[in-house]
Amino acid sequence: MNFQELYYRNPYLTTFEAEVCTCTPGPDSNTFYITLTQTLFYPEGGGQPSDHGVLTILSDCSGSTCDERLCDSCPDRITPGETITVLDVQDSERGVLHVLSKPLNPGTRVQGEIDWSFRFPLMQNHTGEHIISGLANRKYGYENVGFHMSDVITLDLSGPLTWEQAMEIEQEANEIVYADLPVEILYPDDSELESIDYRSKKELEGAVRIVHINDADDCACCGLHVRRTGEIGLIKLLSLMNHRGGVRITMLSGRQALRYYEQICDAATAVGQLLSVKPHETQEAVQHLLQESLNKDRKIADINQRYFQAKADSITEKKDLILCFEEQMNQVELRKFCDLLVKSAKGSVCAVLTETDPDTWQYCIGSTEVDLRAKVRVLNEQLDGRGGGKPVMVQGTFRASAAAIEAALKQTLHLS
Ligand SMILES: [Zn+2]
After folding, report:
1. How far is 349 from 376, CA to CA, in rounded Å?
2. Distance from the CA of 251 to the center of ligand 1, in angstroms?
3. Ligand 1 mean position to 254 CA, how many Å?
4. Separation of 50 CA from ligand 1 center, angstroms?
5. What is the rounded radius of gyration, in angstroms, for the C-alpha atoms of the chain?
6. Which fold, 119-261?
7. Around Cβ 364, how many Cβ atoms within 10 Å?
8. pLDDT along the chain (416 residues), means of 10
9. Is 391 helix (H, G, I), strand (E, B) or coil?
10. Do 222 and 45 form a contact (C-beta atoms < 8 A)?
11. What dotted CATH number matches 315-412?
């Protein structure tokens, strides 16, 4: 353990005092990297994001190592009492780097405060992940081969699992939560380490930090964890998908799992109210609604087909151009109607259009006698249109009046 890393000594502390050791400009001119004599800010690593928080300036610098940028005339000068947001925290060979938008002189005393509302859910989620990974390892021999924490936790296991098997693991994991077992951090010596069957993602050198949860997990880990499993509160697996020969699990624990549940519950309640059913009956009600909608779609398609046929039948003699401006048709209906007119062989060219906005028309034009692909380019130019298709049928949009469309069609297709 490094003397700097207060977060390992007590991950439940939220404030600390320290002195600035070094301050160096970042890769851009807007950021500065500082190291402190000690810190509670956990740097990004091992799938866990870095801590959020602020530094409050307690004293001006000693002056002995003063950088001229920080002198009285400097606009970046920091005064005691000022609070600076820690933008990012990264681990490095020099120690833990705190990324700030302003420089701080070595020797400056600061009080740091981490955002506990951000940190604690990470500790809950991380410990929950240990229990799931540990149980998957003990039950099936699988390794955790990928781990990422953001809005949800993703966890990649090296072998396949069914949803039922995953639910069994979830149930056992929550029993471990209810049992409120201690989460122990061990630093075993070499001989003790040999006797522990622990999970590890990589070859380890030096002192190994083992996270031990009875009946669930032994794992080499540098992350932050809750003191007892009861603090996790709840472990919930959300989804399971096949991934690189194994599975990817998404999951949440603790406060984030509760927030997720609240959102799902609110959504199910709102949908239930719309459908006049209880929240747990919404799936059946939505399935019923979808089937009803499908039946209506079929009925509408049937009525449309009869309408198209009646319209085609009403044309008693063959014309050069059949032109139909229809109300509220979708693309499929346009194509079906146009297709039927072409097949009825009552027009050399059959055009069906529907107005989607004022003077904006969706078109479908068909013909077995005229090559429409070349003609539609001319029409698109004349009528501010776009679209194309095959020689026998073209589809697209014209932005022009109905009268202009009719005139352009007749002129371009040399039809009367
Ligand atoms: Zn861990």
Report:
1. 12
2. 15
3. 15
4. 14
5. 34
6. Threonyl-tRNA Synthetase; Chain A, domain 2 (3.30.980)
7. 28
8. 77 96 89 95 90 92 49 62 94 94 90 97 96 97 93 96 98 98 93 87 75 93 94 98 96 97 96 96 96 96 94 88 93 94 91 96 95 93 95 96 95 74
9. coil
10. yes
11. 3.10.310.40
